[in-house]
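Homework-ish question, so no full write-ups if that breaks the rules, but can someone show me the predicted structure for this set?
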Amino acid sequence: MSLSISLTINGQPRTIALDDPRVTLLDLLRERLDLTGTKKGCDRGQCGACTVLVDGRRINSCLSLVASLDGADVQTIEGLADGDALHPVQAAFIEADGFQCGYCTPGQIMSAVGLIKEGHASGDPERVRELMSGNICRCGAYQGITEAVLEAQKVMADKKGRNAA
Amino acid sequence: MSLDAPSTNARYGSNAGQPLTRRDGVLKVTGRATYAADNHPDGMLYAVTAVSRIARGRVTSLDVEATKAHPGVVEVMTPASRPPLAHDPDEKMPPFGFRIEVLQDSTVRYANQPIALVIAETLEAATEGAALLNPQYDADEPRTGIDDGLRFDPPAVGVGGPPKAAFGDVEAGLAKAAQVLERDYVTPAQYHNAMEPHAVVAEWDGDHVMLDMPNQALAMSCASYATYFGIPPENVTIRSPFLGGGFGSKAIINGPQILAILAARALKRPVKLVLSRAQMYGPVGHRGGTWQKLRIGLNNDGQLTALHHKSISATSSFDDFLEPAANASTHLYASPALLSEHEGIRLDTGTPGPMRAPGEASGSAALEVAIDEAADACGMDPLDFRLHNYAETEPGSGRPFSSKALRECYAEGAKRFGWAGRPLASRQMRDKNGFLVGWGMGTALFPCPHFPAEARATLRADGTALVETAGADMGQGAWTALAQIAAEALGLDPEQVELHSGISTLPDGGIAGGSGHTASAGLALNNAGKDAIAQLSELATNDPASPLFGAGNIGVEARAGRLYRRDDETRSESYAEILARAGRREIVGTAKASRDPAAAEAHAMFSHGAVFAEVKVDPDLGQIRVTRLVGAFAAGRIINPRLVESQYFGGMIWGVSFALHEEAIIDHRTGRIMNADLAEYHVPINADIPSLEAILIPENDPFVNAIGVKGVGEIGITGTVGAIANAIWHATGVRVRKFPVRLEDIIG
Amino acid sequence: MNRFDFIAPHNISEAVAAAAEPGSAYLAAGTNLLDLMKIGVSRPVRLIDITRLPGLDRIEWQPDGGVRIGAMVRNSDLAYDPRFARTFPAVAEALLSGASAQLRNAATIGGNLMQRTRCAYFQDTASACNRRVPGSGCDALHGENRLHAVVGWSEHCIATHPSDFCVPLAALDAVVELEGPQGKREIPLEDFHRLPGETPEQETALAPAELIVALRLPAEAARFAANARYLKLRERTSYAFAVVSAAAALEINDGVISHARLALGAIAAKPWRAREAEASLAGAEPTLEAFTRAAGFALADARPSGDNAFKIELARRIAVRALILAAEGTPEVMPALPASPFSTTPGASHVA
Ligand SMILES: Cc1cc2nc3c(=O)[nH]c(=O)nc-3n(C[C@H](O)[C@H](O)[C@H](O)COP(=O)(O)OP(=O)(O)OC[C@H]3O[C@@H](n4cnc5c(N)ncnc54)[C@H](O)[C@@H]3O)c2cc1C
Ligand code: SF4
Ligand code: FES
Ligand code: FES
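A: Not a homework solution, just the prediction itself:
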């Protein structure tokens, strides 16, 4: 059985001919589309390394079946920067040293982008910590991560404010 | 760095000592940093191991037919079909290699041991193929508890460390003590769980093999793989530009990767193998459990009269790596008599290995709680007690420390934390919500090993440089710090220095472990840079056309891409000019570096620190939160404070993890780990870490090496575990002697 | 994961018809089902994708003030729905204390109800487990069972139900709407999950091929809006399943409790409604004594199923604490650490 699935990935419409319904979004990205920025840390929803945005919401791509995503819009770490210009979250992660080995980082960053979009953290570090708790960092870069999310959120709000004014 | 500090995007200056952001930062935040499993050569196959679900016995059958019948499965490798190896896997591979399990027979020595390898066209097919093998076993009773295993006297602990240290007469010291404290402590088996699972992509070209794999010891690994595959070491190339965390687990050769490499050779196609999270609880090392006993003699002035630290350390049934826990007591507190010793116990588990601060972490956990108990027994403040027993020289040997700014760590840490005024007794502090509040501390200590390393520094015609060493960046920031060291030696801005690392064809950068990588590879780069500059000076000072001609003994100094005459700053010349006139395209400096043996002989060398913890505990429900951690560390010269702070933070979080979270839960009836995942094997998440502070205490060490660099990667975990446990006691009155602390321990 | 056929029905009746074939399973977000398929615990041969079924993703307010929640509504969408969070704050808090932000964004209401136990032996296909393979035995019984059930268990199974969401739902008399080959029916959430008895494999009251289409909270559950909390004890601050949890809801008039609701989580194979405790509180003043007595009733029949006697005491204490917090009033805004004891209000400790 072959399924034909339409996805928009980082703004590009793609038609995926799926010869195997078992393929998860994570494995599709990594093993079939050469988008290896998204990482696999557990494959069971227990670490957050595979976080991407689907229809604008952060989810664990390891527990998402491609077959059920027909028509979805997927954004991965590769689609975040605008050419050479880093997304404010990416820039803030570098500045706050919000990573060490970098393996959890694409997931952390996509999660942070989702978190800021959701808009439930306000400027409260405790809320940021709680809402970033679905992304394990074994290196222990949490303090930098929290700092980066707060900073990026501010930068993005300022930018929005300026654009509105 | 505090959350309130204004964030700035400015560059921070340009040389060693500056908090430059990471050179690999952009690659890592854009997803362009390639880790081993991101590689995908044409025609690649997927391999998945099938693992044993018993811990001891034999595999009696595998349903290879069912697996082969699954669409997409290409091959199944079992003990019957595994191609030969040139080295007996049951023989240890020197210097650090372990016996490995690579389908040499049907014997099962631990749960999660590989028992077959399935190779398929897709990951999905390989995974299901492995599930279809339906192994049958002949199981023997597993031995995984302290009462089950065979005890033995180990010839060595850790990586060739002494199993025993003794000076003075411990029994006499205890006999004459005013009081003797005798306590038992237990630490569990822990698993590294780097976020990146162990992986390899292997591609053969004739009898050459290219291995993409996370690797903390490139040159050593090439030699080992070459021995297994019967090819010259130069035929093995390992690429490991990034590791998604190592923590010691990626320094040693493991069985599963060997199988995948064998499969690639046999099938003449590239093969990728990535372990599942569950499969990492077995063949790739762990921190073995310990059962420790401390006996401390105390006189009426609150001084130690004797210290006895014994650890029963677990290893596997077939190889030896014993957590050198008792050695944590040998270099820290002054005592007229000391005995540290180890006993081994053989369990049916995978062989343990070095895991972040091997020995020091579990040993310090026990020692620092015991010291806190001793302070309490003497009615003394824990900090006063530690100062009272401060070792001015190395206990036993009396050798001077190469440097030891521990007093400053205590003082600065205590000040920043606000330690003064801490009530002596437990259960004295509450916050406004009624939570019990406790403050505890621990001393941090870690040795400064130094590995032989090589490097090359090439000054190029345009005045920039290329520096090369086969090192590994697993998050400690090697790419950045090593470039800073090289830039300093070369008198260049780091932006003018290109660093190549992470591939075995470069000069041997030594091992990224033991917190010794920056010092070891850094010294090599420093020396290579100096060598290049010396050659350049030679060119200039011998060239009558150069303003530096004849500087001779007075010498020149390299700075900002120019050589200056030492006694006359107005006479200088740029590197590019010197090279151009000499008609040279480049100058290549090389170095092999290791520590000066005489300095090593004459000194005790350690990084030190003091960690202060505040915990809050729900008095009714027992839930604990570490609300504040302040660590002050002295570790020689700091190349990049931003990266070093991150290393300390990481270590301190590992301390939180050790104290409150990590434990492999083994069902002793089967020997299986029942929480071999990341949902139930808990490590801290973001909300567990509300506040960290790391203070970098300046320390000048002329003896450790020419660049004055000690190590920072592991020390953070030592001290922290004890500080948290002691804070829990201070909050609740409950003494922690078994890690991790559980809710039921607190509510009683 | 085994191979399977993937079926995307267009409406509920197609879905139900497709699911009637043996070996079928409904696929919602897949955060539980795919996980179990990866570890070989579930091996369905047909997946019926219900994510596109029309009409299942709505939160509908009833004229009487009750609410009907479609089975495909995502956990986070319900928790952050302002009117819902205001009206049923303990439910919102429970939702936000579960899993992670990513998982809540995907996980559906129906899937949350249907999630399977986290018993390690259930997840380990090499272990004996009556729930997974009826009649094979229960390796948890004398195994690593620190976190297993302390009420309602049997020798055949000592597992707990892991859902946070279901705990306040049980307290608030939620109703599950089903549609199956036999037509539509509804059952109280309290009767939805089953205690193991001799048939632990029968986890819920769902008949084969039956689909959860919606969940209803009755209007009278809104009376507790001002005094309702969910509290959850975990082994780390977040992203962990409950060791024990409690949902408490009170209606207090002139200093007297007129109605009380209490349910406990992670102590049984179902969310544990404590009716006797509730009855003991009706007409009482909201005092520590009254709460302690109530908690005593709630755990009266508890007994350890292994190394878990501590859970009985913890459950008692968390019940008391949840009642105290409920009496203090629903927080103005959702706490930063939902359901955590660390987002409690001053003076809440009661034992020590
Ligand atoms: C790491 C991790 C941590 C978690 N932590 C928590 C936690 O702390 N608290 C908590 O409560 N939960 C937790 N969860 C569980 C999570 O809430 C569930 O996985 C989720 O709610 C399931 O929803 P789903 O839509 O993904 O269901 P699916 O996985 O799609 O389905 C689950 C089951 O329900 C059946 N099903 C789904 N929808 C219907 C329907 N409408 N009618 C009939 N049958 C249906 C499916 O056939 C399947 O058997 C955690 C999960 C993970 C992976
Ligand atoms: S407790 Fe229940 S789910 Fe767990 S092993 Fe026993 S029967 Fe299976
Ligand atoms: S890989 Fe998806 S959550 Fe870990
Ligand atoms: S940076 Fe290494 S796991 Fe997060």
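Now go work out the reasoning yourself. Hint: The radius of gyration of chain A is 16 Å.
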